[in-house]
Design brief:
Elements: E1 3-7, E2 11-14, H1 19-32, E3 35-38, H2 49-62, H3 65-68, E4 75-81, H4 88-97, E5 100-105, H5 125-134, E6 138-140, H6 154-169, E7 175-177, H7 183-191, E8 196-200, H8 202-206, H9 230-241, E9 247-249, H10 258-261, H11 276-286, H12 293-304, E10 313-322, E11 327-329, E12 332-334, E13 342-347
Helix pairs in contact: 4-5
Bound molecules: (4S)-2,6-dioxohexahydropyrimidine-4-carboxylic acid and zinc ion (ZN).
(4S)-2,6-dioxohexahydropyrimidine-4-carboxylic acid binds near residues 141, 254, 268 and 269.
C-alpha cells in the first residue's frame, strides 16, 4: 500500500497550552485533525464553563487562516478540570453551554499541572452524579499518586483502587480511560460496559520503556503514564487491531520547551502532534492493520461523543521523511518525537 485516503480524523486527547505556545503548536493539529478534545490543565486550570468559553475563543482566534476561512475547518472541543470543589451547578452550566464536551479528572499531583486536581474522588461525587445524569463523559488520568507504588504499576493499581469503586458507585457514568498503557487497562475496558472507552496514543503503540533508556537517558520519550514493558505495548496493538469501538485515537501530544525536558528534573510529555497521524499509520502498518486505521482515527471517537463523523478526507503517502531536530515554540524550541529521524508516512498536501 503506497497511498491511504480516509475520513479526516479527530484527536480525542490534546494539550494545546495557551498564548504564543498554543499559536506555535495549533497548526500541526489543524493540518491533520478536524476536531480535538482540548485538555484543561492550563495554569491556572480551566475549572469553569466561563473559562472554557474564553479559552475556546482564544483558540479560535489563533487558528491558522486556512482553518478560519473554512479551508480545513477545525473545532476545539472544550473540557473542564475537575476539582474537589466542582459543583453540580457547574456541570449543568457546562452541559448547557454546548461547548464543553467532557470533564477531566487528574488525581492531584499525578502529572503536569495537576496540583489542583482531585485529592479524593469521593469529594467530587455531587459533580459526578450530575455528569452521570446528563451524560457528560469523565476523562480519567488513571494513575494512583501513592509514592509507595512503583511508577510502572500506577495505572494497574488505579484500576483496583479507584476505577472499579467509581463505576460501582456510578454505574452509568460515561468514562474514557485516557492514554491507556497496560494490558490490565485493555482488559478492564474490554470487559466494562459500552459507555466505558479508552484512548490510545501513537507513542504507546510504537514504543516500550526501552525507548527511554536506549544508549542513554532520552527525555523526549518520557511521558505520563510512562512507557511500559513490551507485553503491554503488544496488548495495546491487539486492542486496536481487534476493531473494538471502545478504543480510539487520542495523541496526548504534550509540548514542553526543550530546556524543560533536557534538564535534571524534566517535564513529562511527548510532542507528537507534528507527525501524529503519520505515527499512527506506522503503528498500524507494523500491525498489518492499516485497514483498521480509519475507524480508530475517524469514527469510533465521534460515535462515543455522539458527534457526527467528519466528511472531509486526508491522504497519506508512503514516503520516508526526516522530522526536524526542533520546531519553534514561542521564544523557545520544541523537540518533536522522532526528531532527526525518519517517519515512513507523509500527509499529502
Ligand atoms: O506526559 C504527560 N504530559 N502526561 C500528562 O498527563 C500531562 C501532559 C502535559 O500536560 O504535559
Ligand atoms: Zn494528557
Amino acid at each position: 500500500m503506497h497511498q491511504l485516503t480516509f475520513t479526516r480524523p479527530d484527536d480525542w486527547h490534546l494539550h494545546l497550552r495557551d498564548g504564543t505556545l498554543m499559536q506555535a503548536v495549533l497548526p500541526d493539529t489543524v493540518r491533520q485533525f478536524a476536531r480535538a478534545i482540548v485538555m484543561p490543565n492550563l495554569k491556572p486550570p480551566v475549572t469553569s464553563t466561563a473559562q472554557a468559553q474564553s479559552y475556546r475563543t482564544r483558540i479560535i482566534a489563533a487558528l491558522p487562516d486556512i482553518a478560519k476561512s473554512g479551508g480545513t475547518k477545525f473545532e476545539p472541543l472544550m473540557t473542564l478540570y475537575l476539582t474537589d470543589n466542582t459543583s453540580a451547578e457547574e456541570i449543568k452550566r457546562a452541559k448547557q453551554s454546548g461547548i464543553v464536551h467532557a470533564v477531566k479528572y487528574y488525581p492531584a499531583g499525578a502529572t503536569t499541572n495537576s496540583d489542583a486536581g482531585v485529592t479524593d474522588i469521593r469529594k467530587a461525587y455531587s459533580a459526578l452524579e450530575e455528569m452521570q445524569r446528563c451524560g457528560m463523559p469523565l476523562l480519567v488520568h488513571g494513575e494512583v499518586t501513592d509514592k509507595n507504588v512503583d511508577v510502572f504499576d500506577r495505572e494497574t493499581v488505579f484500576i483496583e483502587r479507584v476505577m472499579i469503586p467509581l463505576l460501582r458507585d456510578l454505574p452509568q457514568l460515561r468514562v474514557v480511560f485516557e492514554h491507556i498503557t497496560t494490558r490490565d487497562a485493555v482488559q478492564f475496558v474490554t470487559g466494562a460496559p459500552d459507555h466505558v472507552a479508552a484512548t490510545i496514543t501513537a507513542h504507546h503503540l510504537l514504543y516500550n520503556r526501552n525507548a527511554m533508556f536506549s544508549g542513554g537517558l532520552r527525555p523526549h520519550y518520557y511521558c505520563l503514564p510512562v512507557l511500559k514493558r513490551e507485553v503491554h505495548r503488544e496488548a495495546l496493538g491487539k486492542a486496536v487491531v481487534g476493531g473494538n469501538p471502545k478504543f480510539f485515537l487520542g495523541t496526548d501530544s504534550a509540548p514542553h520547551a526543550q530546556h524543560t525536558k533536557e534538564t535534571a528534573c524534566g517535564c513529562a510529555g511527548c510532542y507528537t502532534a507534528h507527525t501524529a497521524i503519520e505515527l499512527y499509520a506506522e503503528a498500524f502498518e507494523q500491525l498489518n492493520a492499516l485497514d483498521k486505521l480509519e475507524a480508530f482515527a475517524s469514527f469510533y471517537g465521534a460515535d462515543y461523543y455522539h458527534l457526527p463523523r467528519n466528511t472531509g478526507k486526508i491522504t497519506l503517502n508512503k514516503e520516508n521523511w526526516r522530522v526536524p531536530d526542533s520546531l519553534p515554540f514561542g521564544e523557545h524550541k520544541l523537540v518533536p518525537l522522532r526528531a532527526g529521524e525518519n517517519v515512513a508516512w507523509k500527509i499529502g498536501g
